[in-house]
């Protein structure tokens, strides 16, 4: 995936952000919801809520990445619809 220009860099350097941010959303969701599931497991004396929380966190992280257009190609993010991909 080619790098995109960043508005924070006035000299026009390009940075790679999409994959790192996508991974951060998914890993962050797994950690946050896994901890919530672990806490509920402790309170309710169960063992399966940790796994459910981790899976929901991964799905939620991917959903947020889709909402922020991190899983689309740079051409489609800019609105170039020249191809049928």
Describe this structure in words.
It is a single chain. With 85 residues, this protein is mostly helical. The chain has a domain at 33-72. Helix content is 60%, strand content 5%. The chain has three helices and two strands. It has helices at residues 18-44, 49-67, 74-78, and strands spanning 4-5, 14-15. Strands 1-2 form a two-stranded antiparallel sheet. β1 (4-5) and β2 (14-15) form a beta hairpin. α1 (18-44) runs antiparallel to α2. It starts with a strand and ends in a 7-residue tail after the last helix.
Please sum up the structure shown:
It is built from 3 helices and 2 strands, in the order ββααα. With 85 residues, it is mostly helical. A two-stranded antiparallel sheet has the order 1-2.
- Beta-strand proportion: under 5%
Strand order of the largest sheet: 1-2
Report the uncertain regions: none
Written as H for each helix and E for each strand, in order along the chain, the element string is: EEHHH
Q: What about the largest sheet?
A: 2 strands, antiparallel
Number of strands: 2
Helix content: 55-70%
Judging from the principal axes of the Cα atoms, what is the shape? rod-shaped
Distance between the termini: 15 Å
Give the overall average pLDDT. Answer: 80
Q: Report Rg.
A: 18 Å
Characterize the quaternary organization of these chains: single chain
Number of helices: 3
Structural class: mainly alpha
């Amino acid at each position: 995936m080619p790098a995109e220009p960043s508005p924070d860099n006035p000299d026009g350097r390009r940075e790679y952000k999409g994959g790192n941010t996508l991974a951060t959303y998914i890993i962050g969701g797994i950690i946050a919801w896994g901890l919530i599931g672990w806490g509920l497991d402790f309170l309710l004396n169960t063992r399966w809520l940790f796994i459910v929380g981790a899976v929901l966190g991964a799905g939620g992280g991917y959903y947020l990445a889709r909402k922020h257009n991190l899983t689309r190609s740079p051409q489609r993010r800019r609105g170039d619809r020249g191809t049928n991909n």
